[in-house]
Amino acid sequence: MRTQIKATLAALSCLWLSSCQSPGRLSHQQLGSVDKLETVRFFYPSAGGNIEAYVVRPDGEGPFPLVILLHGHSFIGRGAEQVLATAQTFARDICFAGLAISLPGYGASEAVQGSVEDTTRRGF
Question: How many domains is the chain built from?
């Protein structure tokens, strides 16, 4: 019984701590208000539907160079969240702004019909 309680408390603690690291959410029109070293999730309209993206702002006044991060293919549809740690490292360690984008049909981006090349082109 004690082992189950300890395991439950450990799991709840992990969930609570991971929620502290969740990115905020903004509309694409509000991106100018991103705080230093903050990660925010937003959606932008494209010819292929609404695209999910995350932006990470470095510390300092800027302007900043920008690195755009695209995820690889995933059978479970994971999108840009899988490259967020890399974007955050770029922002924290070398002062690059990071933009992580979920390709159409991945993450929370809308899936559109067509070839991979066409849907990717319409998404950007």
Answer: 1
